[in-house]
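Researcher: I'm comparing several assemblies side by side, and this is the next one on my list. It has 225 residues spread over two chains. Same procedure as the others: predict the full complex and return the structure.
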Amino acid sequence: EVQLVESGGGLVQPGGSLRLSCAASGFTFRNYDMHWVRQVTGEGLEWVSAIATTGDTYYPDSVKGRFTISRENAKNSLYLQMSNLRVGDTAVYYCTRLNSSAYDYWGQGTRVAVSS
Amino acid sequence: SYVLTQPPSVSVAPGQTARITCGGNNIGSKSVHWYQQKPGQAPVLVVYDDSDRPSGIPERFSGSNSGNTATLTISRVEAGDEADYYCQVWDSTSDHFWVFGGGTKLTVL
């Protein structure tokens, strides 16, 4: 059974940093591109980062230069290092597996709150 | 930036058919995926590549895509289908390569 379990969320002040982790199991992690998708409470879904099997990374302009996605295949783990956090980054962050161009598995999410 | 437009809400009586649209410029040339999200839960993929269903998704869920509109159709709607539904595509010309629609709240009357 495929499982994605996020951790690392919490409350942080504006300008602060946070590192999210995602533990993957039930599939060959190194064979899949992995993404982070976030959702502000009561709003829609927003893609925030991607890492290919090759290690290539992708970001939208809204987080470029502030967020860094990485993976450790030996540990079946995905990470999101977030720095210079803004109030607008407050959201639930989901770890997702990309299959072709669709997200076929999602974690339960980890909540990030940026507030003074 | 590629924009996907969904109606904010759709209402349907139990047993009837719900149709949720997703509009985008020449969306028919792209693969469209649909997700169902119930309150407090993570999204679940219900249709991928326009019209395919993941294992475990009822046949009542189907999709189509042509021209500037993709449609998620839910037949014989049940109370348990009440949820938010999001469409999603990949667009290489967009800042957000992986683009989501704004979501549609399906209410079962």
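Model: For your comparison table: The mean pLDDT of chain A is 97.
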